[in-house]
């Protein structure tokens, strides 16, 4: 089974008005949930909230809104409450972050506003120290770093791009590269060599040694080879 390379998809610039369940709330808290609103993040960390009565701008850091309820009464209006609801639910990025697409699955994720490299969703990201499995060989590896660049831009110590290795042909050349070491090499004397792999070639392993069911595709049938850093 091969892994189709996912390319970043375009994201809608606007959202349709939606509602939340009332959840036993009253007053402004209830209106924030049941009234149709569309929340759109702005580039400066504020949010535009479109309602039937007009569009207002919420600034979470300053705890302000341009609506009359806040301007005249100083209230924590329904617009501010709605922004908090949507940020908590993961429907819009929190302040300081923007929406991006995962380089592996094409799903939506949030990254720091100034982030410029290929993005990964939490399901396909690998933290330093994580135990993973090489899909091609089944070997267990430990993640020691992230290159922060695409597989078609990162060179190994052999002077070859990570994406050019035959065993990486079924993994997206646009995927971020991670540096890993072989788990069994950590107990040996001498230098431990690190290797470079595209993100989706690495399958996460949980604390009990089982592979993560949502971590990506199954290994290919091709012969395995290492990609040396």
From TrEMBL:
Keywords: Metal-binding, Zinc, Zinc-finger. Residues 1-29, 205-229 are annotated as: Disordered. InterPro entries: Znf_SWIM. It holds the Pfam family SWIM. Signal peptide: none annotated. Residues 56-88 form the SWIM-type domain. GO terms for molecular function: zinc ion binding. This is SWIM zinc finger family protein. It comes from Haloplanus rubicundus.
């Amino acid at each position: 089974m091969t892994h189709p390379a996912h390319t970043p998809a375009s994201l809608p610039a606007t959202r349709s008005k939606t509602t939340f369940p009332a959840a036993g709330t009253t007053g402004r808290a209830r209106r924030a949930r049941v009234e149709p609103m569309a929340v759109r993040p702005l580039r400066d960390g504020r949010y535009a909230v479109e309602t039937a009565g007009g569009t207002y701008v919420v600034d979470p850091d300053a705890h302000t809104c341009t609506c009359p309820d806040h301007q005249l009464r100083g209230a924590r209006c329904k617009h501010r409450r709605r922004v908090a609801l949507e940020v908590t639910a993961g429907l819009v990025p929190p302040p300081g972050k923007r929406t991006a697409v995962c380089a592996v699955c094409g799903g939506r994720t949030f990254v720091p506003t100034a982030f410029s490299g290929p993005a990964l969703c939490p399901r396909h990201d690998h933290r330093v120290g994580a135990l993973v499995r090489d899909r091609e060989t089944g070997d267990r590896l430990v993640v020691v770093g992230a290159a922060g660049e695409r597989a078609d831009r990162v060179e190994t110590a052999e002077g070859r791009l990570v994406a050019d290795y035959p065993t990486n042909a079924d993994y997206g050349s646009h995927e971020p590269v991670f540096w890993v070491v072989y788990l069994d090499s950590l107990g040996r004397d001498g230098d431990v060599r690190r290797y470079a792999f595209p993100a989706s070639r690495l399958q996460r392993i949980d604390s009990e040694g089982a592979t993560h069911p949502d971590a990506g595709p199954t290994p290919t049938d091709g012969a395995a080879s290492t990609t040396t850093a």
